Amino acid sequence: MDEKELDSLIKLLDDPDSEVFQHVEQKLITMGPEVITRLESAWEQSFDVMLQTRIENLIHKIQFEDVLQELELWKISGSFDLLQGLIIVNKYQYPDMNEQKVINQIEAIKRDAWLEMIYSMSAVEKVRLLNNIIYNAHGFSGNTSNYHDPQNSYIGQVLETRRGSPILLACVYSIVAQKLDIPIYGVNLPKHFILAYTEDHTPVADKNGILFYINAFNRGQIFGRHDVIAFLKQLNLAPSDNFVLPCTNLDIIIRVLRNLTSSYSQAGNAAKTEEINRMIDLLA
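Above: the chain sequence. Below: its structure as C-alpha cells.
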C-alpha cells in the first residue's frame, strides 16, 4: 500500500464533486481493512461533520466487504466449523470483536462438562450433565422478554449475556457437545430450531438414527419424534426430512441471518436488512 497515495485519497474524501468522491471511496474500499486505522485518524483530526460521516460510512463499507469475503471463504472451504461461521456473522455488527475470547468462553463450558463426564454415561445422562453445566452452572436461558432483539443472534453477545434465541442457544449446546464427542446436531424445524441426538458421530442421519430431540431454548428438554410430528401438524406441514433430520452448518448460518433480517426489518432498519440479505444471497 502506497502511503502517499492513501493520504492523497483521504484528503479527497471531502470533495464536493460526488463523482470524485465515489471514485475515491471505491478505491479505498478495494484497499481493504488495512486503511481503517488511517481513516480513523483522519476522522479524529477533522471537525467537518460531512467528512466524518463519509469516513464512518466508508469504514462500515470496508468492514462489511471484509465480512462478505470471510463468509464466502467459510462456505467454499466446506463450512465445517459452525463456531467460525457464527463469529463471522458476529463481526458484521461487532467488527472489533475479540475472536479468541469467544473461543475461550466455549472452551470453558466444554471443560466444565468434561470434568464431570463419565465414559459409561448413557445418552440421556450425558444430556442431563450438559443441561446442568449450560443452564445451571453457566446460567444460559432463552431471551423470552426480548425475543426479537437482534443481539440474540450474535454469538459474542449471547456468550456475554447468557441470553439468546432458540437457534443460538442450540448452537452453543451442539458446539460444546461435539467438542466432547457427543453426537448432537441442529434440526431446522420451522418456527423453532431444535437439536437431535444421533446414534453415530455424523450429522447425516435417517429417522431411525435419531435417539431423541432436545429443546435448547427450554433448558435442554428431551422429547421424541412423535412430538415433532405433532408440532408440524399444528403448522399444517408434512414431516419432511428437511424438518426432522439434522441440517448442515450452512443451513444454520442462513437461518441465523434470516432471523436477523426479521429483527432488523421489524425495527425498521432497512439498511441492515438489505446488507444481511446480501449475506444470505452469498450463502444461498
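The radius of gyration is 22 Å.
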